[in-house]
């Protein structure tokens, strides 16, 4: 949902640790080349995964002003649009202070003054440049590939491996940043990012414990502590957290009712392109191993107003295994319980209810299933 308003009012989504909260609000003064003609400036940031907030203004003669107030520092983008050139976007952190954004060539290289947070952000961003370029290249390769190639398991496996290597490099560089720079705000942001992917929540917990107490006890710090706990409960070797959700007919389905089988808990949605592209592989493996004690339990992150799309995708993709959803989108209770922040994601559970694999796709999933002893249940 898009909200257009002149004054931004945001949820408290990031950490106030520099005393900026006493500021009355933010004032962004923009300076562009003097010969810049009339243009639009858009300030945008995400309140949640499904809602964005936008403020906008019209600039002329190389100047513009945006002002308002945020509840806490938040990652934002400033986009400049004119009739004579493509839209250009500047990523930055919005905080309640007076800041100047001076653009000489392109917003991406703009100089931001008056904002200590953005001075620190520029240094943190240098650590992420290489892995972000690699991730963008992988995404572009998939997006630009013909539809038939997108469905090719070997092609997707190759891109998945490339993306995994980029994530591994990013994690390495983020830990280096924490060790070398140690800015409390961005050290916390780095750990929040790492916990989304890492198979080693214990390391995140150890590094988190070295941050200042004020950071750890902040709203964002407490949120990260919760995510660490979730990551530990869903790590390989841990008992899979049980849950109950309704299937498409409203019947309650419990994870533990599948005890005695190998179960792949698959988080997906009808609107998720990579999820839908992986479904033919899941169909193939389901039919190959269903008589050997393997099944799949799909958990959809579709919303209530998209229930028909969910049901249609189940039929179109021929997903003959059990599907459940509370139709709350990203607020799906099981997705929160398992710490799901992106899809597709999955967890492979053994007959005793122990997690033995996660994020297995393509040939990696096929190889894992091929190596499992059959069960008669």
Automatic annotation (TrEMBL):
Limits of the Thioredoxin domain: 234-377
Record's subcellular location: Cell envelope
Pfam families, A to Z: AhpC-TSA, DUF4369
Cross-referenced InterPro entries: AhpC/TSA, DUF4369, Thioredoxin-like_sf, Thioredoxin_CS, Thioredoxin_domain, Thioredoxin_ResA/DsbE_sf
Main localisation: other
Keywords, ordered alphabetically: Cytochrome c-type biogenesis, Disulfide bond, Redox-active center
Protein name: AhpC/TSA family protein
């Amino acid at each position: 949902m898009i909200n257009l308003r002149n004054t931004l009012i945001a949820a408290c989504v990031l950490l106030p640790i520099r005393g900026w909260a006493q500021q009355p609000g933010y004032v962004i003064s923009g300076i562009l080349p003097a010969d810049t003609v009339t243009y639009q400036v858009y300030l945008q940031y995400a309140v949640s995964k499904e809602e964005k907030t936008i403020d906008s203004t019209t600039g002329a003669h190389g100047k513009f002003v945006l002002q308002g107030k945020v509840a806490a520092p938040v990652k934002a983008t400033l986009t400049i649009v004119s009739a004579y050139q493509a839209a250009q976007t500047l990523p930055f952190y919005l905080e309640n202070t007076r800041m100047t954004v001076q653009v000489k060539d392109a917003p991406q290289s703009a100089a931001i003054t008056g904002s200590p947070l953005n001075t620190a952000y520029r240094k943190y961003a240098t650590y992420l440049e290489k892995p972000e370029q690699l991730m963008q290249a992988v995404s572009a390769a998939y997006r630009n590939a013909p539809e038939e190639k997108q469905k090719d398991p070997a092609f997707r496996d190759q891109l998945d491996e490339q993306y995994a290597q980029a994530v591994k490099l990013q994690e390495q560089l983020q830990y280096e940043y924490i060790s070398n720079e140690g800015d409390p705000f961005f050290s916390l942001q780095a750990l929040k990012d790492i916990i989304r992917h890492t198979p080693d929540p214990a390391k995140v917990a150890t590094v988190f414990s070295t941050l200042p107490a004020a950071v750890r006890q902040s709203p964002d710090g407490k949120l990260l502590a919760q995510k660490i706990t979730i990551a530990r409960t869903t790590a390989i070797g841990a008992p899979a957290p049980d849950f109950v959700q309704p299937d498409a007919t409203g019947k309650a389905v419990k994870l533990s009712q599948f005890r005695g089988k190998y179960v792949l808990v698959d988080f997906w949605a009808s609107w998720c392109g990579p999820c839908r592209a992986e479904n033919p592989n899941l169909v193939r493996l389901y039919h190959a191993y269903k008589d050997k004690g393997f099944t799949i339990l799909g958990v959809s992150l579709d919303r209530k107003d998209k229930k028909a799309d969910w049901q249609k995708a189940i039929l179109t993709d021929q997903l003959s295994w059990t599907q459940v959803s509370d139709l709350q989108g990203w607020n799906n209770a099981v997705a929160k319980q398992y710490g799901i922040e992106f899809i597709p994601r999955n967890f492979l559970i053994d007959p005793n209810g122990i997690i033995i694999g996660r994020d297995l796709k393509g040939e990696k999933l096929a190889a894992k299933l091929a190596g499992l002893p059959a069960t008669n249940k």
